[in-house]
Amino acid sequence: MKKEQFGVEQYNKRYASSKEHEPRNVITSFVDKYLKKGQRCLDLGSGGGRHSEYIARKDIKVTAVDLSPVGIEKTKEMLSNFSDSNIAVVANMQQLPFKDQSFDSLIANRVLDHNNNKGIEKTFSEIERVLKNNSMVFIAVASISQSLKENRTIIEKNKTGGITFVSQNDSMQNEIVHNHFSEQEIIKLARQYHFAILEIKESMKTDKKGEQKFEWQIIMKKVIKKK
């Protein structure tokens, strides 16, 4: 069985066969409230570009990052009508190809979920590194309240209540790593990597299949490290 942590093949297939949905209201609200024209925003795990396009429309310079080459090509198409300062690149969230303090803000919509405990810490470290002090951050991640479906195998548990598991994708013949976060896990990570949590809430919605979906929605601000 192939261990394919981020599900790149799965998302390539998804972006190739469908159009992106409208941007999420929770993210457009964050953009409208906290981001300013001319600033630089990192869209981490940009998918097919729905949020990157919204940010670009606000005259905010967006850099879109995703591991899916198909998603990045879609994003480039969506950004083609805007300023050349908006870019989209294939990159790994655990090793971002940007200089320290390159961005004024960051959004990450359900991308940190595709990590084990070590990968989550690496990603938070990279987020801290590429953001300027006082940068604003929106993150949405799966909650520990979300029930596990069949063909899910827990491979890690952490001391703050989060779990890491693999899901089997029979059509792709691989296993994809996921993490469900506890509130305590998020608070610990924020403190460890110098972010002040301004808002944190657990959101639940019922999908078209009648299944309940739980996620954490977090707004944070990068604070200056104490010497």
Helix and strand arrangement:
Layout: E1 2-3, H1 8-17, H2 25-34, E2 40-44, H3 50-57, E3 61-66, H4 69-79, E4 87-90, E5 103-109, H5 117-130, E6 131-142, E7 152-157, E8 163-169, E9 174-180, H6 183-192, E10 195-206, E11 212-222
Parallel strand pairs: 1-9, 2-3, 2-5, 3-4, 5-6
Antiparallel strand pairs: 6-11, 7-8, 8-9, 10-11
Labels describing this entry:
227 residues; alpha/beta; seven-stranded mixed β-sheet; Rossmann fold; four-stranded mixed β-sheet; single chain
Structure description:
The protein has six helices and eleven strands. It has 227 residues and is an alpha/beta fold. It has one domain: Vaccinia Virus protein VP39 (Rossmann fold), CATH 3.40.50.150. The strands form two sheets. A seven-stranded mixed β-sheet has the order 4-3-2-5-6-11-10, with helices on both faces. The chain has a four-stranded mixed β-sheet with strand order 1-9-8-7, with no helix packed on it. Helix 1 (8-17) crosses helix 4 (69-79).
Q: What is the terminal separation in angstroms?
A: 47 Å
Instruction: List the quaternary state of the chains.
Output: single chain
The total count of helices amounts to 6
What CATH architecture would you give? 3-Layer(aba) Sandwich
Beta-strand proportion: 25-35%
Number of strands: 11
The CATH superfamily is identified as: Vaccinia Virus protein VP39
- CATH topology title: Rossmann fold
How would you describe the shape? globular
Low-confidence stretches: none
Main sheet specs: 7 strands, mixed
Number of domains: 1
What is the name of the CATH class?
Answer: Alpha Beta
- Would you tell me the structural class of the helices and strands? alpha/beta
Helix content: 25-40%
